[in-house]
Design brief:
about 425 residues, alpha/beta, D-Maltodextrin-Binding Protein, domain 2, 20 helices, 15 strands
């Protein structure tokens, strides 16, 4: 009897595990940094533990699709903005508007509109921007002044004039601009500055034969045809930072992460002799890529309330400013840009300016395949093997092939009131793509 009573007393004294665990998948360097930040979150919320899993970017997409197939997705995840449509159409993401409507932290009006829009799929909010990036100009002030200019270019025409003058000044084996031809972000940035969409017929066909993309391709190809840019891929360039500082090129199109790299690697004599500027557009500073990542809650999460608390914490302007100070990623909220570390940074401010004009890419799960088709085709043009008129026709044909299943499903859905939904189409495509 005593043994039974003692056992009952011990059972009463033994505490059951308290609180909940939020599984958070993050990628690369951001995962390393956020691991430290969530300790503060846990201190504020003693009933919540955050388990951060660091996933390499190179393996992230495959791991997410595998987890989706195995019903093993985490509670919260960092998703690249171009992945949002894919996982939304797979019906894996929790609608967040009800949470935002009750939030005292997440204010949609405080976010750059183009960045916020990347998270709205078929009219439904499925993510909250975490950090952003876009592409703009890095340039050598001293060499631009030597060529006769005291300001960076604002229009395509002005930029072309500057590049012609710089190339004449530079001579052989040096250039006005460096645009590695194995990248697609430059062409995409120029294309987003056009009024014509990249896809047509409700995103079921390519629209690369449009006047807008033809202008884009003509402007891009002319840089190489005139000798202003070298026909080189990134693998042929030993070190883009060293080449920039030794004067191999005056302009370089890149993202915000390179502010720190250029600062770290700049020769002392060139401090203050380089800067950043908004990407020139056809008629003035134009649109740019709405890059970066967002925070999502997967639909199968059993910890949605705790997960939302974590997203709110990471969305606070003060936390975003701390995140920026550690890693250099740019915040998606205008109020965060009022902190002195950003407001007083002349290299960061052009990014803030351009973020007001960014545009999302087409919201289809096939987009990354389409972007690669665009890169391949434009590289064929630049290397001299493909006529521009033929290039846009071939690119449309390739993209139409990529979108064939989407187009068929769209027609079925339109013709049959009980037709297959876009989400079923997306699931079928993802199943084909999964390993």
């Amino acid at each position: 009897m005593l043994l039974i009573v003692g056992s009952l007393l011990l059972s009463a004294c033994r505490k059951e595990p308290e609180g909940v665990t939020v599984r958070f998948w993050a990628m690369g360097r951001e995962a390393e940094v956020v691991t430290g930040l969530v300790r503060e979150f846990e201190a504020e919320n003693p009933g919540i533990h955050v388990d951060v899993q660091n996933i390499p970017w190179t393996a992230a997409h495959e791991k997410l699709l595998t987890a989706f197939a195995a019903e093993g997705l985490p509670d919260v995840c960092q998703l690249g903005n171009t992945w949002i449509p894919e996982f939304a159409e797979l019906n894996t993401l929790t609608p967040l508007q009800p949470y935002v409507a009750q939030s005292k932290v997440v204010d949609p009006a405080d976010y750059f509109q183009g960045i916020w829009d990347t998270n709205v799929i078929h009219g439904e909010l499925v993510g909250v921007p975490w950090y952003v990036d876009t592409r703009l100009l890095y340039y050598r002030k001293d060499l631009l002044a030597k060529a006769g200019y005291d300001h960076p270019p604002r229009t395509w025409a002005e930029w072309s004039d500057m590049m012609a003058a710089i190339k004449k000044m530079q001579g052989p084996n040096r250039y006005a601009v460096l645009m590695p031809i194995n990248e697609f972000e430059q062409q995409l940035s120029f294309a987003l500055q056009q009024p014509d969409p990249l896809l047509r017929d409700e995103d079921t066909r390519g629209n690369f034969s449009s006047p807008g993309f033809r202008r884009t391709l003509g402007f891009y190809e002319n840089m190489f045809a005139q000798g202003w840019a070298p026909r080189m891929s990134e693998t042929q360039i030993s070190n883009v930072w060293d080449e920039f500082f030794r004067g191999f090129n005056v302009f370089y199109v890149s993202g915000p992460w390179n502010i720190r790299e250029f600062k770290k690697l700049q020769p002392k004599e060139l401090e203050g002799q380089w800067g950043t500027a908004a990407l020139p557009g056809p008629d003035g500073p134009g649109a740019g890529i709405a890059g970066g990542t967002s925070l999502v809650i997967f639909r199968d999460s059993k910890q949605k309330e705790a997960s939302w608390k974590l997203i709110e914490f990471l969305s606070r302007p003060a936390i975003q400013e701390s995140f920026h100070s550690i890693i250099g990623d740019l915040p998606p909220r205008r109020s965060t840009w009022e902190y002195p570390s950003l407001a007083n940074d002349p290299l960061a401010q052009p990014f803030r300016d351009q973020l007001e004009r960014v545009k999302s890419t087409p919201k289809v799960l096939e987009w990354e395949r389409i972007a690669q088709e665009m890169r391949i085709t434009t590289e064929q043009v630049v290397r001299g093997g493909l006529d521009q008129d033929q290039a846009v026709k071939e690119l449309d044909a390739r993209v139409d092939k990529v979108l064939a299943k989407r187009r068929w499903m769209h027609e079925q859905h339109r013709q049959d009131s009980s037709g297959v939904s876009d989400k079923q189409h997306s699931s079928a495509v993802a199943t084909e793509a999964a390993p």
